[in-house]
Amino acid sequence: MKTMEWETLLSNERLGGELVIDKKTEEIYPRTDFEKDYKRIISSASFRRLQDKTQVFPLDKSDFVRTRLTHSYETSVIAKMMGNMLASGEKYALEDIDSELKSRIPDILACAGLLHDIGNPPFGHFGEDVIRNWFKHKLKKYFILDERTQQKMSLDEILKARHIKDLQNFDGNAQALRLLTKLHFQDGICGMNLTVSVLNSLVKYPAKSEEVGTAGSLLKKKMGYTDADSDVYERITEITETKGVRHPLAYILEAADDIAYKTADIEDAVKKGLLDVNQLLNCEKEYIEATTNYDISKMKDLFDRLQDIYDKAIDKEVNNPHVYAIRNWIPYAQEWLMYCAVYGFWRNKEEIMTGTYNYDLFKGTYHEATVKFIDTVMSKYIFINKDIVKLELSADTILTNLLDKFIEAVIYHDKVYTSEDNVEIKAYKKLYMLISENYCDAYKKAKKIFEDNTTDENEKKEYDIYLRLLLVVDFISGMTDSYAKRLYQELNGFSF
Fold first, then answer.
1. Cα–Cα distance for residue pair 344/251, rounded to 1 Å
2. Can you tell me the distance from the alpha carbon of 37 to that of 50, in angstroms, rounded to the nearest whole number?
């Protein structure tokens, strides 16, 4: 396998060309390309919407529970710190790369950390499940009447297999790439016009929907991009020379995300009273006794540290020793996990640089067992929480209803396609008007490009329907929790 080169991997090229910035301003405020990316990201409406999207726990009146926004900031910080270890750390710094290129790594990871969840729909990861399930079970229930033959065909009969798979394998990570390159409008172009190295670092799974589930491949566990966005993926990977393989920094970003959410979920659970230190430590002891696959010595040391902090909190008679202990232990735990992840990258860098590494960075490190254990605790104490279950049930009702309404609207609103009963419903046009103008423009642009390069009328029809369905996915996945709930209530007569 060919070894990837850092010079192309860390490219500052942009798909939309150089940013147009006043020359005098540039002289007064000199910025790197990645600092420009960072400012673009935090100034964007898409990023701000993350403040009203669920991380794990439903959004409530408490000010300590993480949202997607706070989680993204934490992931960004952790990713940048690990980037600094690779760029200039004393022990595991990369040696086969010049200093100017190495200095780009922390900044690229900081940007990627901010963006890694930007494509997620409302209501956490369960929102992704709802969208997937809708297309798995309901697509076949919608029909189009062929005016020439007077035969009705279901949407799943019309669509190509790969387009159905795109919809049935919806993933927030793939949606992030789509949002950043096709749906966000800035400087008169589609997309945020970020550097290709930042965009490529976000592609966690370098696979199209048809490849999802390939046996034994971690990198094809989920979809990385849709067929509609394959042109963007091709251009990005052509520049970075990563076609078909994961960008090396995507491993660091994945680890930063894991560290951020695993430790934060534990902290939030303790603060909400769903878990206490004694329960956590008892689980740890049970896990260690039952574990034979991993070296658990460092994991034991880590939780012994938690025990010490908790015991001191008891001695000091602090107000809430459980919260105190967790809050003071989390930074220590995160540092150990970051160290292990960077070591994992350094130890496996040859496989990573050839695109053949098929594990996360914790594999074979001191804290592989710790990461597995935290997942066990989350399943036992957190994911079964009643508030989370109620959120998931609400999400199912809200998103399913919105998908029902807007799928019908985008298919039938303009009379290009006729429903099986040939009934005109004026509400379709009104519903269509609620969809973001940016998303509608992106649909029209993609349709025109395809039609300009295709003569087959059946191909045009099929692709148009596919784009219409993507338009609904774009609209709904871009909603905040509050907006989705409010729109559902308004459209169903619950709130006037």
1. 10
2. 18
- Alpha-carbon distance 308 to 281, whole Å? 11
CA 130 vs CA 168, 200, 216, 257, 393: distances in Å? 10, 27, 26, 23, 10
Alpha-carbon distance of 243 to 192, in angstroms, equals 22
Calpha distance 286→274 (Å, rounded): 19
Q: Which CATH number fits domain 6-121+172-248: 3.50.50.60, 3.30.420.180, 3.40.190.10, 1.10.3210.10?
A: 1.10.3210.10
Lookup result for tokens 């692709």? 463
Distance CA 19, CA 36 (A): 9
Alpha helices in 179-224 (DSSP H): 196-202
Distance CA 18, CA 147 (A): 48
Length of the chain: 496
pLDDT block averages, 10 residues each, the chain of length 496: 92 84 64 92 94 75 75 97 94 89 96 97 92 95 78 90 97 96 73 94 94 77 95 97 95 97 91 92 92 86 96 94 96 97 96 95 95 91 80 91 96 85 79 94 95 93 97 97 95 79
pTM: predicted TM-score of the whole model, two decimal places: 0.93
Strands 185-186 and 151-154 turn out to be unpaired
Q: At 377, which amino acid appears?
A: V
3-class SS at 67? strand
Query: How do strand 151-154 and strand 143-146 relate by DSSP bridges?
Result: antiparallel
Q: Which amino acid is at 275?
A: L
What are the φ and ψ backbone dihedral angles of 154, each rounded to 5 degrees? -75, 155
Do the beta carbons of residue 253 and residue 116 sit within 8 Å? yes
- DSSP string covering 273-314, please? TS--HHHHHHHHHHHHHH--SS--HHHHHHHHHHHHHHHHHH
Beta bridge partner(s), residue 223: none
